[in-house]
Each structure stands twice: as C-alpha cells, then as structure tokens.
C-alpha cells in the first residue's frame, strides 16, 4: 500500500461487492464496477455498467398499488471474459483453489489489476494477470487485458469473450420485488474473427445502447486470433476461441470495447459509431499510456499534499482522499461538460437510489468549483434544462415559480419513490421524502457558490438568475402569514433529517417551520433581491419582463425575508436552541443507551423503530444534521447577518450550544451526517478536528454503514471529506469579491499544500500552523482580492507572498 494504491491480498467473497464499488472505473460518460470479468450477477459478484443519464421507467404492482420507478439502467456487461482448460469448468475465482491473489487499484492511473495463481482439480498450476481501464481520453472506450500462464502444463484452452445484455437491475436487495428488466434485445452480430457487437434498447425510454468488441489473442508479438465459434442468444453474443497453451509462452488476450447510445452527440447511428470506434481503437498499451497522461493532467488540478506527524496517518489519509477524488472525477469527469447529466448521489457505481440526483450536489460542487468549475457549470445546466418541469411541478402543487424535485432523473419529474421497503420488517411504507423542499434552496446555494468562485456573469445572467428568481417566487408563494406570531411561516415540509416526516399521532405527513428550510428560504430571497444590483440592467429588465416580475413582488420578497419565523426552545440549561421544527421540544427524549444495548448498530433507527411498531417521529432523534446544516453552509458572520435581518438574537455561543444539543441526538444514518458534523465541530475547534475527520473518511472504504457502499459510493460524503481539507482547514470562503482564507490546521497536521482556481486565476497555497504562502500564476486576468484572516490584500498575477498567522 502507498498513498496511491488500494490493494487487496486475498479473495474474500463477503467483501467482493464492496470492492467492486470501490474499484469501479469510469470516465463520466460511463462506469463499470470492479467485478471479476469471469463473473455474472449472483450472491457474490455484481458486474454493473452504468451510462450517465441513461434512465428507464418500469411499473410494478406493490402492496395493491401500481408504482412506477425510474432507474439508471444496468447496461450490458462488456467485461465478460473467461477460459477453460481441456474442456474443464469455465474459470471462476470462486471455484478454484486460489494459491495467491492480488488486486490493486492504481488510483493515479485509474487502472485495475488482478493477479491470481490457482491450482485446478487436475493439479495444474496457472497464473492469470489482468489489467483494465475505462478510457478517460476516449469516453466511449474500455479495455481489458488478460494474460494466462500455464506454469506446469501444456494443453488446449478455450477463451470465451462475450457481450452480455441479459443483465437486469438486481444490484439492491431491497428492490427485489420491483420489475428489473429494462433492456429489450436487438441485433447481435459477429462481423470478423475478432469483432462482434450487440445492441439493446431500454424498454420505455427507448435508448439504444450498442457495444462493439474486438478480442485478439497474442503469443508474444504475434497475433494468433483463431476463427471463433459464435455463441448467440437473445441479448447475448460470445466468441469462443480454441488454442493451445504451454509453459514457454503465456497467452495474452486483449478485449477492447466501444460503447455508444442513441443519446450521444455527433453521431450518425450508435451501432455504426461503436463498430467504427472499436475498429479504429489503439491496442491496450497505447490506450493505457494516453489514459495515464490525461489522468496525470487531472491530478495536477485535483491533487493536494499533506504532512502529518504520524506518517501512517498521512499515507492513509492521502490515499483515501485521492480515492474519493478519483471516484468523483470518474462520475463527473470533464466529459460531462458535453452531456446532459447530474451527479447521482451514489455515483455510477451501483444501483442504490436508482441513480437519482438529490441535494447531495451541495456537498459535491464546492470541490469542483475550486478545481474545475466548468464541471459545475455543466451540472447546473442539467438543472436549468429542467426548469420548465419544475415550473409545472410548482403549478400542479398550487404554487408559483419553480419547484425542483427531491429526486431527479431523466426529465426532471419527481422521481422519489412513493413506497419504500423496510428490510427489517418486510413492510412497504409510504415515502414522504419528497417533502424536502429545501432542495430548492440548495440549488440557489449551488448557483451562488459557483458564481462567487468564477464570477461567470454569462452563466448567471442567462441561466442562474432565472432559476434563482423562479425559486424565490416559489418560496414566497409557499409561505403563509400567521396573524398570531405576526410572522411568515412554511408549513408541511421535511427538513434534511429524514427521521421526521410528520407529527406523532398525525396521519398527515409534513412538519411546520423547519428552521433550516425557513432560514435557507430567507437567504434565497435575499440573493434573488441582490440580483437587481448584480445583473447587467438590460438583462435584469428582460428577465423581469419575461417572468412578469413586478416591483410589488420584489417588495413582498423583501418583507417575507425580514419576517420569517424561526422556532426556538430551551435546552436543559435554559438556553435558547434553534428548534429543528415547530413543536420539536414536545417530542420524547430517546433512550440511546437502551437501544444501543439492544441493537448494537443503531444508525438506521428508523428501520429499527418501524419494525418495533414505533416511529422516530415520536422522539428527539435525528438521522443527520438538520439545524446543524446552517453552520456547515454559513460562517458565523453570515448567520449573524441573517438573524439580525430577521430581528432574532444570535451570538457566537449559539453555534457550540446547538452543536452540543443536536449532535448527541443524531444517529448518523446518512454518511452526509459525519461530514457535516466534522465540519461544524472543526470550525469551532479546529485543532481537535482530526479524529472526526478520520472517521468521516472511513465512510466508504470501511463501509461504516455495513453494506451500503457496495450499492454505490456516497458522492456527497466523498466530496465532503476532500472539501474538509480544501475549505474547512484552510478556512477558504468566497464572499463578496474576496477570497477569504483563515487557516487553522488540526493538531498533527504540519502542512497542507493545494492548488485552486479562483476567478480564472490559479492559486497555490502552502499552509503550516504558523504561516501561509500564496502564489498566483502569471495570467492576463485582473488582480484579485485575498483576505487573510481579517486583512484584505490585492494580488497581481505572478506573485508569491508569505504571511504570518
Ligand atoms: C439522506 C439524504 C441524501 C440521500 C442520498 C439519504 O439517506 O438522508 O440526505 O440526499 O440519502 O444520498
């Protein structure tokens, strides 16, 4: 192991699904799980290939209802390749006596290798070396190289290379009762000794997916591909090659695959492009060296360097953070700049949450904003294209403006499921999570952050502003005035904490005045109002005209922004606590000790309680940060301003007091929770932040939720941990026209080096506990303002300056 490699030294069937997710390779256009090429879906393996934005809808009868779900489709398995010796069994790592096993994900090169030595039932010893990549240079290409060494035998060998479109979406056990066959089979054809192709079509969205493969057999420098036997069935095609093997020379098999769909740009027809592309593709080594070169360029933008007093801790942290960066880029690489896709909460790495896009973007975008903001821009355009659908949703619900869905997929319709299965009780339960209207605030936050970092006025004026104004309009129509409190309020919503979707004993879902939602709404209205001063006046009047926005409407937004209610209650020391929602104080305290004793792992308390015929709605328990999200998104200065604007008191102590109150009432049932909590704690106690940060880092590599990572990585938690290094420990904030820096390294961390982009400038930071060195690269841009702790300095391009902290 080193800071760039994820290594497994044995084959562990129980760990395989997790490793498949962690060893996924992808390029933003598509990704394939790190499944064994010889495997098919079953109890141990789950080969999955997912194409960004390739969704399909299926209906199922459940609990007497017809429900429709849209899923990111599991595309045909292009990896499929195995062999057999002398008519024996097809090779499968699970069915042989494994003598040694080594699997390695090279994080720097995005290449996965596997070496297995085994002994078969006839006592023959064989070694298999495999390498694979999903090209980051050519988004449509992937390659697998297999070398087979006969150590002590000679004989015949048969190689089977297939494209398997008989796959279904069966990667998540909880969805087993739902229809899962998304692909209809189309043409499959062998067109040369080394080439065959397969076409399938998604059943409802009618996306044609085509894979074309070349399989070439090599002995040394000599290509020896024999004429194959073709094996064909509905949605499946394979070439079988017979040859001989002896200890003198290994057999090398190269499989190169091209993948296209009918959604692609710049194509005539997907089958034609796939065949053309695979016929023109370079061999494995040449593909690999270009792939490594592009990754090297990406790492120059995304890497960082830390020095920790404990070298082991340093290596582990760097490795995990780089693994996170790798998976984030593999999900949303520069190739998404040309695609109509969002960031699925679970990457392109598995089928959890059906590949849907949630508010998790809020945790992902800051990383890209400061490294490659063009990616954020493309992902924000995914939302802009669905603005009309959001308008329709607002209207259908009886409101104005735009209401974005909690879960989004193909066309921006609400994709949240209506029922979900509690695997603990076997019950199908109504899913009210779509009441998380706060997603609309997250969208504005994302646009605003992107704009603060880039000052991309074209984006803001042509896309961002329209979304912000329509969302502000939704919020103002969603509020009502309460004559008693003389304040505005927001009723019937859910906050980020998914454990609370209703008041106890109330059959109707929804809660009133979720503090997070209400405050975010105020912030949104303020940003919408600020647009008047920021946008070029001509564009602003165009927007007012097209959206029919009047002075009175702006005046109303201003009024609501000053008079929104924020609920408070007292803690055990009689201090004011921001209430998660109105009435929170009436809930029962939860017996954490008792439940921990009884159940051990109580991260998913919702499932435990429901199985006990109880509900978290009765208790002061949170799945994840809710009120605490405010301290994650805003600095104390910003919060102070927001509370003052509303006429509520806010003092610095409000932050630690609320952290203390809610943290002990949180079960961390979402991986986002640990990121937020590490962040808020780190902000108030940065020297002591390391242990919590280290815990958040483990979310996926150690699968701390016990089984969720195998169904897909957690993009929010992965990006959030990188962002802890990037923005939290450095204290980077982009506010007004200033890039603020307020470094405070956790104990043990002796230096932090990173390169970011800010308003077209490339900035290098080298931070130690006592000093910060800032360099700006020469460029033709205007000077920028960098604030160090409290002092604002102007930086010209091409400067290096050092500051004492
Ligand atoms: C969390 C949500 C999150 C979703 C997708 C849920 O478990 O509660 O906040 O958006 O997962 O990651």
From TrEMBL:
Gene3D superfamilies linked: 1.50.10.10, Glycoside hydrolase, family 65, N-terminal domain (2.70.98.40), Maltose phosphorylase, domain 3 (2.60.420.10)
InterPro entries documented for this protein: 6-hairpin_glycosidase_sf, 6hp_glycosidase-like_sf, Gal_mutarotase_sf_dom, GH65_N, Glyco_hydro_65_C, Glyco_hydro_65_M, Glyco_hydro_65_N, Malt_Pase/Glycosyl_Hdrlase
Binding residues annotated for substrate, in chain numbering: 359-360, 623-624
Domain Glycoside hydrolase family 65 N-terminal: 8-263
Residues annotated as the enzyme's active site: 498
Record key words, sorted: Glycosyltransferase, Transferase
Domain of life, source organism: Bacteria
GO molecular function, one term: glycosyltransferase activity
Domain Glycoside hydrolase family 65 C-terminal: 733-786
UniProt keyword annotation of Metal-binding present: no
Keyword Transferase part of the UniProt annotation: yes
UniProt GO BP: carbohydrate metabolic process
Membrane spanning stretches: none
Glycoside hydrolase family 65 central catalytic domain boundaries: 322-722
Family: Belongs to the glycosyl hydrolase 65 family.
Protein name in UniProt: Trehalose 6-phosphate phosphorylase
